[in-house]
Amino acid sequence: MKSVALIVLNNFKNDSRVLKEAISLKDNNYEVSVVALHEKGCSEYEIIDGIKVTRLKLYTRRWSKNTLIQLFKYFEFLIRASLLVKKINIIHCNDLKALPVGFLSKSFFNSRIKIVYDAHEYESEINGYSNFEKKTSYYLEKLLIKSADVVFTVSSSIASEYERIYKIDKPLLIFNAPGFKEIKKEKTSKNIFRSKFSIHENQKIFIYQGGLSNGRGVETILVAFDHLNNEYNKRNEPVPVIVFMGYGTLEPLIQKYTIRCGNIFFHAAVEIHEVLDHTKHADYGLLFIQNTCLSYYYCMPNKIFEYLMAEIPVIVSNLHDVKEFVDKKNVGEVAESNDVYGLLNAIKKILSKDASQFHENILSVKKEYNWESQEKKMIEAYHNL
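Predicted structure:
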């Protein structure tokens, strides 16, 4: 039985993509483990869905957060992780920061190791990166990417860019889609959100789920729904509502809006396996990532597939890949501009339509874009190693 170690530089508590990959590999007779980063409140060792998880508790973790000290922490993780997986057959490196683990292990400990590089973003064009960070990431990725035996990524445009700038075979496209699930729509009286927040049955529910951080359009959505609250109340019409379900640095801002706006609500993040059982209680899904970097411009986030798996139409910002997908599949509306007015117009446009007109298209898309279909591509690539 071949062994696989998946490397992540997070605490592996909410990484749905890596968990899905690990379970798929285990189910296809690979001996699977995950090496992650320890954080307060996490176990150093545990078994998750049959997967052995080791979280490295860094000796340097109590040191200062100075940039130079952070590099020492990173190097400690790289060295200890490389030593831990040196006898593994395949090292699956998730994101650029994990790729040096595979490179070091293969270069210094075991030349027979195979490396899978899984780029979850356009790694040298991430939101918030300075020019120095972009250049450093580009040259590091350029140096190491050819050591990988296969490269995965998450959108067609990113795959094309990697092929162009690094002169490699086009990376394999593995969408971060959820597992296929039949959706049973509940009666209004059993609607989780309507019950929890006392939302009237004639009000349409929009949902934003996922990270509540800068660059994801959270602030734009808040302003738009504040505007809708005033506009619809003046006309004495049922007010569209928004439920934010997730966690992140912008949660306090959302909480402030929930106090002043009767159509904005916050729901704490739920476990990965519970997400769709909540999402299905909304009428529409919102994905309003801002065009702040190339990684966002070319993104195809998991939440668009989650909304469609839950059988709700979507509203998306005007970004290259998501626009092309939504327009081609006819499963929702694309905002003409990535600002408050663009979002308001898209909301009003989709509310003017009968949501059932999207239903057959959504059913078709969820049968094509699910984890089972993505898993087949991934396992075939593994077998070819």
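Summary: The chain has a mean pLDDT of 95.
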